Amino acid sequence: MLRKLISTGALLSVLLTPTVFAAGAPDDAPRAQALLTKAVAYYKDKKDVALGTFSRQGEFINGNLYVYVLDAKGTMLASGGSSSVYIDRNVADLKDAAGKPFFREMLDTAKTKGAGSVEYRWLNRKDNKVERKVAYFEQVDDRIIAVGYYLPHGSAKQAKSLLDRAAAAVKEDSSRALAAFNDLNGNFIEDDLYVFVIGLDDARFRAHGALPRLIGSNALALRDANGKEFIRDMLNRVKDKEQAEIDYAWRNTVTNQVETKHTFLRKVGNNLIGVGHYTN
């Protein structure tokens, strides 16, 4: 068994040592790619002897980043993180928290293209919440080597850019834009950023990228975590101008924690469009 390549003591160390993940940082993507490049080169040199190294505390665990390896059929051969519990088990049909068979997608892409990336939702041990994660992977012989990282919180710059795109889309074709904003797998959801739209005539949600069940409901009925009537405040702020900003306490749908949210607002026709980012 390949597990024998990992000493009993090393395996217990991996299983019993808590894996601590930091929230995604802007430089995690290049760090993940660099670690993957290093792991691929190491595997090409050491072959399966590298599997034990990847599964131990050491140079292939970089902060919240670690290496894991599958064979072409989907058996987990090595992991320096929480997925070590799957070593020697076939994970080809394992689904993420949203029901996505992401390992299957990884295997299929590796077979046809040799390398790629896949997005999925996975438990972040730092806050014990399921969050979006991206894994870069490359196939070497019949081994698929991967490194994943958690997506960072959206920034003010990202929020403004997303709002600009959303406003332009509404101006071009409002019906099509609203459908796109409500698509959980669409192009208007970035990290923990999303678009919401409220009708200025009836104060009802016309779109909400994170909570589609709110669509059609009276937005004025919402209160923030401190009881603030923030929707009414939003509508008042754009009554006599095209743009505004507002702060309120809101649950982050990624971390599931109440955080301070700063939202940029834009009035387009009879629509109030908003995109907010979390500041803490």
Largest sheet geometry: 6 strands, antiparallel
Our measurement of the CA-to-CA distance between the termini, rounded to an integer number of angstroms, reads 46 Å
- Total strand count, please? 11
In helices, the fraction of residues equals: 25-40%
How is this structure best summarized?
With about 280 residues, the chain is of the alpha+beta class.
Describe this structure in words.
This protein is an alpha+beta fold and 280 residues long. Helix content is 28%, strand content 28%. It is built from 7 helices and 11 strands. Strands 1, 2, 3, 4, 5 and 6 form a 6-stranded antiparallel β-sheet that branches. A 5-stranded antiparallel β-sheet has the order 8-7-11-10-9, sandwiched between helices. α5 packs antiparallel against α6 (174-181). The protein starts with 7 loop residues before the first helix and ends with a strand. Mean pLDDT is 87; it is low at 1-26.
